[in-house]
Amino acid sequence: MIQIENLTKHYRQGQAVVRALDGVNLTLEDGEFVSVVGRSGSGKTTLLDSVGLLVRPTAGRVVIDGVDTAAARDGRKAELRSDKIGFVFQEYNLLPAFDALENVMLPLRYAARPKGDRAWAEALLREVGLGDRMHHRPDQLSGGQQQRVAIARSLVNRPAVVLGDEPTGAVDSETSAQLLAIMRRMNREHGVTFMIVTHDLDLAAHTDRMIRLKDGKVAVDVTAAAAVA
User: Fold this and answer.
1) Residue 54 gets which letter from DSSP?
2) How far is Cα 163 from Cα 151, in angstroms, rounded to an integer?
3) DSSP helix/strand/coil, 206
4) Where does residue 191 rank: exposed (0-12), middle (13-18), buried (19+ CB within 10 A)?
5) What is the DSSP letter of 100?
């Protein structure tokens, strides 16, 4: 479970104060598949980065599996990111000199207590449909295939939550639907919570729950089906 309590993040731009997040309260239950939508500047990425412990909030806290991250030191936060959180980015962020399998296994190198191994990484690549591409480098894979590698990588250390920042934003609509189906299957089969930031309302409509941010606040928090009805 992830509890987000009064989460606030303010930035200074000259004399002005930008309220990227302004008192956000949310609870994500284990195994949920959640989309976060809103216009540019609404606070979507700041929310994701805060949950991912990539930025320090101005106020409030994020509690991940009972651990209050607001009270954690930087070293402990790094351990939590490695142990509890997987990331999928729009730009894939694969190392060009590594093949697909090596890229998937990369988080295991930096984990204090790795929960996966080579066999598990190979199994994940087969699950995302790349069993015959394990030893291909990123420049030998299509954009959709690279994102499949990134999805497998996000799961290799068996995280509690996977955070996706526009994970289908760099591919066409058909590939986007395929990637969503893969993430959905991983969510159901492995029980991992997914929180995905997206501008694509068609994608958001296929999640369990849609959270719409406006001016750093939660404007809508409903089941996705109700949001698009």
Assistant:
1) S
2) 10
3) coil
4) exposed
5) H
> How far is the C-alpha of 52 from the C-alpha of 64, rounded, in Å?
10
Per-residue pLDDT tens digits for 132-177: 999 999 999 999 999 999 999 999 999 999 999 999 888 888 888 8
Confidence of residue 227 (pLDDT cuts 50, 70, 90): low
**H-helix or E-strand containing 61?**
strand 59-64
- What is the C-alpha separation between 153 and 149, in angstroms, rounded? 6
Residues whose CB falls within 8 Å of the CB of residue 31, separated by 6 or more in sequence, listed in order? 187, 191, 192, 193
Q: How far is CA 204 from CA 8, 26, 154, 221, in A?
A: 24, 18, 20, 12
Query: What percentage of the chain carries pLDDT values higher than 90?
Result: 66
Opening angle at CA 175, ends 145 and 130, nearest 5: 30
**pLDDT the model gives residue 111:** 82
Q: Which two tokens stand for residue 220?
A: 């809508």
Nearest to 17 by CA among 218, 215, 219, 220: 215
Query: C-alpha 122: how far from its chain's center?
Result: 21
Query: For the whole model, what pTM was predicted?
Result: 0.91
Locate tokens 């991992």: which residue?
192
Rounded CA-CA distance 125/224 in Å is 29
Distance between CA atoms of 45 and 11, rounded to whole angstroms? 14
